[in-house]
UniProtKB/TrEMBL annotation, chain A:
<protein>
    <submittedName>
        <fullName>NADPH-dependent 2,4-dienoyl-CoA reductase, sulfur reductase</fullName>
    </submittedName>
</protein>
<dbReference type="InterPro" id="IPR036188">
    <property type="entry name" value="FAD/NAD-bd_sf"/>
</dbReference>
<feature type="domain" description="SoxA A3">
    <location>
        <begin position="372"/>
        <end position="454"/>
    </location>
</feature>
<dbReference type="InterPro" id="IPR017224">
    <property type="entry name" value="Opine_Oxase_asu/HCN_bsu"/>
</dbReference>
<dbReference type="Pfam" id="PF07992">
    <property type="entry name" value="Pyr_redox_2"/>
</dbReference>
<dbReference type="InterPro" id="IPR051691">
    <property type="entry name" value="Metab_Enz_Cyan_OpOx_G3PDH"/>
</dbReference>
<dbReference type="InterPro" id="IPR041854">
    <property type="entry name" value="BFD-like_2Fe2S-bd_dom_sf"/>
</dbReference>
Automatic annotation (TrEMBL), chain B:
<protein>
    <submittedName>
        <fullName>Glycine/D-amino acid oxidase</fullName>
    </submittedName>
</protein>
<keyword id="KW-0560">Oxidoreductase</keyword>
<dbReference type="GO" id="GO:0016491">
    <property type="term" value="F:oxidoreductase activity"/>
</dbReference>
<dbReference type="InterPro" id="IPR036188">
    <property type="entry name" value="FAD/NAD-bd_sf"/>
</dbReference>
<keyword id="KW-0472">Membrane</keyword>
<feature type="transmembrane region" description="Helical">
    <location>
        <begin position="6"/>
        <end position="22"/>
    </location>
</feature>
<feature type="domain" description="FAD dependent oxidoreductase">
    <location>
        <begin position="4"/>
        <end position="342"/>
    </location>
</feature>
From TrEMBL, chain C:
<feature type="domain" description="2Fe-2S ferredoxin-type">
    <location>
        <begin position="15"/>
        <end position="94"/>
    </location>
</feature>
<dbReference type="Pfam" id="PF13510">
    <property type="entry name" value="Fer2_4"/>
</dbReference>
<protein>
    <submittedName>
        <fullName>2Fe-2S iron-sulfur cluster binding domain-containing protein</fullName>
    </submittedName>
</protein>
<dbReference type="InterPro" id="IPR036010">
    <property type="entry name" value="2Fe-2S_ferredoxin-like_sf"/>
</dbReference>
<dbReference type="InterPro" id="IPR042204">
    <property type="entry name" value="2Fe-2S-bd_N"/>
</dbReference>
<dbReference type="GO" id="GO:0051536">
    <property type="term" value="F:iron-sulfur cluster binding"/>
</dbReference>
<keyword id="KW-0560">Oxidoreductase</keyword>
Length: 463, 364, 101
């Protein structure tokens, strides 16, 4: 069994920054990440991709480079291709590398598992060719691949970014189909007083929109009645906008209406979560250092509430400072001194969030999908099924899961959990906090029985 | 409106009884817990099982047999009413053995029980080769199996859903999110809930699983039950691998291989543990080596409701006549008996089954 | 049909693998899901529930839509890298050759 002062799950901005900071204070750090190279999703493969495609990916992406480089520290053991599937008291972490299980015992654990795209259940969203906008970006960053006939659907800065990157790559999307209305932007401007940072984001967004316009990309706003049509794959996107019905033929549909915390790991060890009504998602409860209700477990980055890559890196450092202090490697005065500067930067980073959340609200029909729309992709459970289980007395997602299998498939509810909570909350007129969420159990990701069995105390229980 | 029966507990046990009472025209209100309640009905293994039950108490073996025999008809009726099958398959089940000694010892016990049951215990012993003809994926470490022809399995979640659906369809009232805090008997039973609501009924049944530990004494029961954790695994959906269920593994109607279960005395802790998962996986692979390649998709810990001797408890309260304790750890196997036969006992008809051996008198 | 994706750089170091029994040359070390998409594969598998076609959705190991079978085990294509001689089949689903019984 391995051991370390600090085990970090996830080598995105929060995990990388925390690792470097903690190692800098003399702690031994074990950094576990599923991907073959550090960066997380936002800085995916940055060390390889930046030299090749930096120009089209944009300079924000380059911010990942120093974070990756800082992992080259003797105090940091970075295990790539490590899939964490169980966390137990200790903290004891079990993970798979190359099909074999390993365990590590830490004095502290930092969960930095980042975000998932908010599920966007629309008619046809399970068809081949429909992907998240993040997936489109990953293909571009990691593999230098661009879709020739893509339509971007949804809302938010990431949608503009992938569109602009596609333009720079010489293959503009066929159309940008946005779901937010003009009223959303006005409301954001009116209600979010003094969010100067919001303006900066908006200007950045406007710049990217101008790139799209110059490339001749058709833009539709306040789209409704969106569906993806096709027999065995996505063939077109249909929607209404400006009082007209549209249909755009395509091969690829990239969906996006925001990201939400990936809370699977934290939930698997019963860390309490609460509903964030502005972000319309659950976030784990934690203090200003990222410490959870379990004193030896910290959570930082988008997995603790969406703040973006820069905020995630700062939160990672804050957690590392608190952990270094916990373990006697940093005096309280020094911790607080270093933290002051970080907190100031963090609040500046987060100042723009209310603006973004207002200006690009989730697409309402995807939060309350039509009865026929599949919400659980794995078990092919529809929104109507969940409403029927609500009528049969299912007050929360766990009883609904038992009745109809939503959340029982291999993704373990990652892409249906919030939909089920929202649908049940609406059906019963109760707050999401009261409705609750799936009980998440190990394995956090599927693991072969052979691998599990290899860890049995007696190699063969039958002997 | 007052009910004839207030049933505390909306799991498979409570709903099976509710369903049976509704079929007789009685008015029933079921008080069900919330989303986070301990729910054995959501976590059990799904066997409709006879063998190994009641080795020391033939009446329990018979009671299980009578339920298994009533299951097909019970399942058909639920399916017809709800339009959804509950995954029942009764073509026998195995007790797999990894040593000749354990196989022989078990057969000896079965023979004793068979004699006490007047010969009604239809099982046969399959050696490794015979077993392999039935189960091509069986592994070389399995020396043989006892195939008991009264065994089978069902989909416990589909059963729960069908009962919940049909109880409502039959006019039963199911109140969800109720936490019963006390029961008083005046002219009627007054079942009091934490939210301040109160349900009145002529009779009341306590079928709240582990909830009976707290409520039982308030109604005059000993309710000497305890939780026992069972960890269970389920794989991704697979092509057909296993034909008949065993206590080690079964292939559910949706395709997943369900593997169980541990027996752990850990109080109200329903977590899963790495040693628990690993031990179960190793045993399943020993039985069916091909399972080594299968992906484990989910696991869970559920808490069995065990009496000191493992048998069900059926008891009318001596202090509050009209209040009944109904609890067992084999709610799926006994669902048909609870639906078909228990109403006679509750209503005191001439057809009432003799459940004396299951009373609390045995715990004096 | 023309492939849905094109590559910005010419792929190097192609190695031979099979998908659904067909020989395909893919870049060594490339993300398997990406490589199959670039090779023109549109349907990765059919679901075990309804037999519906599926292909990569999230590309980050979360959605389990890009499942393939390698050496008898179900794997996420988006979490693997291409290596010489890989024998890749769709994950078992309903209605496929290797359908559920």
């Amino acid at each position: 069994m391995r051991s370390a002062d600090l085990i970090i799950v996830g080598a995105g901005p929060a995990g990388m920054a925390a690792a470097a900071c903690a190692a800098g204070k003399g702690l031994s750090v074990l950094l576990l990440d599923e991907q073959p190279r550090a960066g997380g999703q936002i800085y995916r493969d940055v060390a390889r991709a930046w030299p090749k495609r930096g120009g089209l990916l944009g300079k924000d992406y380059a911010a990942g480079l120093p974070l990756v480089q800082a992992l080259d520290h003797p105090g940091i053991t970075h295990i790539t291709g490590a899939t964490v599937w169980q966390i137990e008291d200790g903290p004891l972490v079990t993970f798979t590398v190359n099909g074999a299980a390993q365990q590590a015992q830490g004095k502290r654990l930092l969960i930095a598992t980042g975000a998932l795209e908010r599920p966007m259940p629309l008619p046809g969203w399970t068809l081949p060719g429909v992907m998240t906008a993040g997936a489109g970006q990953i293909l571009l960053k990691q593999s230098g691949m661009v879709s020739d006939r893509a339509v971007l659907v949804g809302c938010g800065p990431l949608l503009y970014l992938i569109g602009a990157q596609m333009v720079r790559a010489g293959t503009p999307p066929l159309a940008l189909v946005e779901t937010q209305g003009r009223g959303d932007l006005l409301a954001a401007m009116r209600h979010v007083g003094g969010a100067l940072r919001g303006w900066r984001y908006m200007l950045k967004g406007l710049g990217m929109l101008a790139e799209l316009r110059r490339a001749g990309v058709a833009r539709h706003v306040a789209a409704t009645d969106i569906e993806i049509a096709g027999a065995n794959r996505a063939e077109s996107v249909r929607f209404r906008a400006a009082g007209q019905q549209h249909e755009i033929g395509c091969d690829t549909v990239l969906l996006h209406h925001g990201v939400v915390p990936n809370t699977q790991a934290a939930r698997s060890i019963d860390i309490p979560h609460e509903w964030d009504s502005r972000q319309r998602a659950f976030v784990p409860q934690r203090d200003a250092w990222g410490r959870s209700a379990r004193a030896d477990v910290f959570i930082a980055g988008d997995g603790a509430g969406i703040g973006g890559a820069k905020a995630a890196a700062i939160a990672g450092e804050l957690a590392a400072l608190a952990i270094a202090h916990d373990l006697g490697a940093l005096a309280q005065g020094d911790r607080d001194l270093e933290a002051r500067q970080l907190r100031w930067r963090l609040s500046a980073e987060l100042a723009a969030r209310p603006f973004i959340d207002r200006a690009y609200p989730p697409f309402a029909p995807a939060l309350a999908p039509a009865d026929k729309t599949i919400i659980c992709r794995c078990e092919e459970v529809t929104a109507g099924d969940i409403r029927r289980y609500a009528a049969m007395g299912c007050l929360g997602p766990n009883q609904a899961k038992a009745f109809g299998r939503a959340g029982m498939g291999p993704c373990q509810g990652r892409y249906c959990g919030l939909s089920v909570t929202e649908i049940l909350s609406a059906a019963h007129g109760q707050a999401p906090d009261r409705t609750g969420y799936y009980r998440i159990r190990p394995p956090l990701k599927p693991v072969t029985l052979a691998e599990l069995a290899a860890m049995a105390d007696t190699p063969d229980a039958a002997e | 409106m007052d009910s004839d029966y207030a049933i505390i507990g909306g799991g498979v046990v409570g709903l099976s009884v509710a369903w049976g009472l509704l079929k007789r025209g009685l008015r029933v209100t079921v008080l069900d817990g919330d989303d986070g309640s301990f729910r054995a009905s959501r976590g059990n293994f799904g066997l409709v099982w006879v063998q190994s039950k009641g080795m020391n108490q033939p009446r329990y073996a018979q009671w299980s047999q009578s339920s298994a025999a009533a299951w097909a008809d019970f399942s058909d009726e639920l399916t017809d009413a709800t339009g959804h099958a509950v995954g029942l398959e009764q073509k026998g089940g195995y007790d797999l053995h990894f040593s000749e000694e354990s196989l022989e010892a078990t057969v000896a016990k079965y023979e004793t029980l068979k004699a006490r049951l007047g010969g009604d215990y239809p099982y046969e012993v399959l050696g490794h080769n015979a077993l392999r003809k039935e189960e091509p994926e069986i592994g070389p470490k399995v020396v043989g199996a006892i195939l008991h022809h009264q065994d089978g399995h069902a989909n416990p979640l589909k059963l729960l859903r069908a009962l919940s659906d049909d109880v409502r369809r039959l006019g039963g009232i199911i109140l969800n999110g109720k936490h019963v805090v006390d029961v008083k008997k005046r002219d009627l039973f007054h079942v009091q809930c934490a939210d301040g609501s109160e349900i009145r009924a002529r009779k009341t049944i306590l079928s709240a699983g582990l909830g009976a530990m707290e409520l039982g004494p308030k109604l005059g029961f000993k309710a000497p039950i305890r939780p026992q954790r069972g960890q269970v695994l389920i794989t991704e959906k697979m092509p057909k691998i296993i034909n008949r269920p065993s206590l080690i593994a079964r292939q559910v109607d949706e395709g997943g291989i369900q593997i169980g279960a541990t027996n752990e005395e850990v109080g109200l802790d329903d977590r899963v543990t790495q040693p628990g998962l690993s031990g179960l996986a190793a045993e399943a692979i020993a039985a069916y080596p091909i399972l080594g390649r299968a992906q484990l998709v989910r696991s869970w810990g559920a808490l069995r409701i065990l009496s000191p001797d493992g048998l069900p408890i059926y008891q009318e309260s001596p202090e509050m006549p009209g209040a009944y304790l109904v609890t067992c750890h084999s709610g799926i196997t006994l669902a048909a008996a609870h639906a078909r036969f228990l109403p006679d006992w509750l209503e005191g008809t001439a057809a009432a089954p003799d459940l004396e051996v299951f009373s609390e008198a045995r715990f004096s | 049909m023309k492939h849905a994706f094109h590559r910005l750089d010419a792929p190097a170091d192609l190695v031979r693998v099979t998908f659904r029994g067909q020989v395909v040359d893919l870049p060594a070390g490339e993300n398997l899901a990406a490589a199959l998409l670039a090779a023109g594969v549109t349907v990765f598998r059919n679901t075990p529930v309804s037999g519906a076609p599926r292909a990569p959705f999230c590309m980050m190991g979360a959605c389990y839509d890009c499942l393939v079978e390698i050496d008898g085990t179900t794997r996420q294509a988006c979490m693997l890298e291409v290596s010489e001689g890989m024998v890749i089949e769709p994950a078992h689903g309903k209605g496929a050759d290797n359908a559920l019984g």
